[in-house]
């Protein structure tokens, strides 16, 4: 069966196979010094010293060592070349894929998962392709060739060289018995430990406020104790087996067995002292070879899992792009009979019809899960509709080239995302050619200029190094970035939901500057902040219940009036957005 690893390696298999061939030649040549040392010993013990023969064998040993070194060097060069080409092609393919997947894919996929694929998994493939193919070949060819040589000298020598291997094989088989099931059990236990840690850290403020530190700590302690007991219960019985298998492969034990049993064979006259010397040279190579083989098998398992994840990323469905993009004529937004669901069996939006005139502000309100965020994110094509269409400027968003669409539609979401780089680079993401004066003007409008000026290097401060921003500050940077991009259509998804009161006031001022003259679709969680907008749309279970201005909806005494009265029963400080 063809695996994902086989598929990914296919373009560079010829280089890998050539490298393996050179590694095999190097491993065979490395056997020549063993033969040479044995022959040198034979000549020296023969009595009359043949000087020319001694020099020939000595020269042959030196030449063989040199050729073996060159062959192994060429093998590693070829496999590293294969790895370089594979890494370059995979990185290009992944970057291209990440640039074409729907934005909604990033919402569903954590940054840690993406990082693991594009960084850690590629590193796992590097070790397998660049190193283990060569090392595994040498680890197999050298001892096998050595055993074949011993058989040609005396078949008893080959048996003597592997005399301790059955002990290791039996111990290893016992250690690996039920390995998969036990690892799954330990993974579940470790997941519980991780969950307990996250729960404890995230909830520490509440826990301390209510005096439940001891109880929260007990949850963590119980998870740790359970993992410790399961791990110790599995590992302790294996320690004796591990010690036994390690002893069976240790050089002193191998020498003891070889010389001890070999002396009995010598006494019987079945072998000669030089043959025993040859057997010892081969026998001490076997443990290191087995260690490399074991490491290679582990690397192969790791690489198989990494290749599956890489292939999974490369198979993510891309956002369809039109062959010839259409140009929006205006900045109005229209939803026509929109149906959408992440799972076809459970639709979230069902027949939504809505028009947002150019230059107007439309607020989406409703209970949690009503479909507000989902509807808004269809405009910048985080996902595509399952039925119906979404139009911007009279053109179906699916018929607009994605680059043109993002010059037309900007968005500020709940969780502001900043990239590693300078503050100025972050602000220029949507408009790289913007001047310093334009960057500063956008920052001033977003109420973040003074904070940037206070940084060690101002706008040239690197985020994550000498520029650390709070959630509210990061949100204002995101707003400044959107202001600088100057898109005629704007999506605001509860941009102040995680801000503290002081930051929220500044964000509201920044949003007011951002919204002027644009077509705005805003998702509101505080009704008082959107009471002055042009249109309020109430969603419930993926349908539009009613729409209109604040006063007319209150007079209709429908769903919006109920939401308004419910909010009035639990008043909170409101910061009205002057849109």
UniProtKB/TrEMBL annotation:
It is a multi-pass membrane protein. It is found in: Cell membrane. Residues 333-566 form the ABC transporter domain. One of its GO terms (molecular function) is ABC-type transporter activity. Residues 18-278 form the ABC transmembrane type-1 domain. Keywords: ATP-binding, Cell membrane, Membrane, Nucleotide-binding, Transmembrane, Transmembrane helix, Transport. It comes from the Bacteria. One of its GO terms (cellular component) is plasma membrane. InterPro entries: AAA+_ATPase, ABC1_TM_dom, ABC1_TM_sf, ABC_transporter-like_ATP-bd, ABC_transporter-like_CS, P-loop_NTPase, Type_1_exporter. The keyword Nucleotide-binding applies. This is ABC transporter ATP-binding protein. The chain crosses the membrane at residues 15-37, 57-78, 133-151, 157-175.
